[in-house]
Amino acid sequence: MQPDSGDLSITELTAVIGAFTRMNIRLPSIQRHSFTTLSVLHSLAHDGPKRLTELAASEQVTQPAITQIVTKLEKEGLVERHPDPSDGRAVLVHITPKGAEIPHGRETERITILTDLATLLTPAERAAISAALPALTRLVELNTERTSNT
Question: Does residue 26 register a pLDDT over 90?
């Protein structure tokens, strides 16, 4: 694929999204955890219980690594393992209410900080971001469709 697509600079889009993502990940100052730990909690909070193999694949880590992360989270009372009702030999990792508070609290803090930052933008800048949201949402949907078909 070419780095530019018509009037859209894919190179610039990639750079800006990367910088924004790094900023967004680091905004919350509460509940400090590793990126992978936070990603596991976010995944379980939004997608529901998962097998260890599913978590390892979605987090792009090895089976031993995800087992270690889940064991640590379990000791902290943030997740629990329960038998998989569809396969008694397997277990599903469930987020606990205490664990669900972490991604929720981080999202709440992000909203507060971004609300403050957005007030520093011009009305035209806020409108430009607002106008871009449907297209960015569509990019996420297209990627989800693409990755679920592989």
Answer: no
